[in-house]
Amino acid sequence: MMNPPLSPEIADRHASLDTDQSASGLDAEQAHRAGFYGLLAALLRDAPDGDVLAYVAQLDDAAEPPGTSELVLALKMLALASRHSSASALRDEYHTLFIGLGRGELVPYGSWYQTGFLMEKPLSLLRSDLARLGFERATDVHEPEDHVAALCEVMSLLIQDGVAREPQQQFFNNHLGAWAPAFFHDLATAHGAVFYKSVARLGLAFMQVETRYLSLLD
User: In whole angstroms, what is the distance from residue 198 CA to residue 204 CA?
Assistant: First the structure.
């Protein structure tokens, strides 16, 4: 699976990162993982434009990773949804879901899902871990770092950088795995979701695969 266009990076040190997995020396399994994280980040950071939609529309022709039947089916459904969606319609859908008039239907932040409030202790803990891992907040990014797209972006970058699996597991368990499934479930049932129902299905399937994969360390 090709790695999709990454969403705006939260780390200055990755501003010119090469996202070609074969060039970076990753094996196929790690390239698939980084690609799925990058895909979710790209779709959740902002409404996909025509180029992203065209890219996603051909993903059902990608090689199928073994043992991930629901994940593969979810990817095919996302590709199908992309072929029947327009960038203008998705801008409206994204605005309804995540921006709205004052607030969207969903609040895609870890602090919100874990405490019911924004800018709470989970964000402080995340910032400490990001600093420890060498990430610096980009000056042109204004979203809190616990946005679901930013966290998917970080996981993709950790994999691309060849970070050991134990730190990946710790980051996933502490900052994404505990709440992202609930977010994707809410997205799947959101009143304003049409295209994003397929994004939610992919997110749920991938979170299940990642949880199993990373739990092999225990």
Answer: 10
Q: Give the CATH number, domain containing residue 171.
A: 1.10.3480.10
Integer Cα distance of 152 and 164 in angstroms:
17
Structure tokens belonging to residue 107: 């609040």
Q: Which two tokens stand for residue 31?
A: 């390239």
Q: Cite the beta strand spans of the chain per DSSP E.
A: none
- Please report whether residue 136 resides in a domain: yes
**Range of the structural domain that residue 149 is part of:** 12-215
Total domains, the chain: 1
DSSP 3-state assignment of 100?
A: coil
* pTM (two decimals): 0.86
pLDDT tens string 34-62:
999 999 999 999 999 999 999 999 998 75
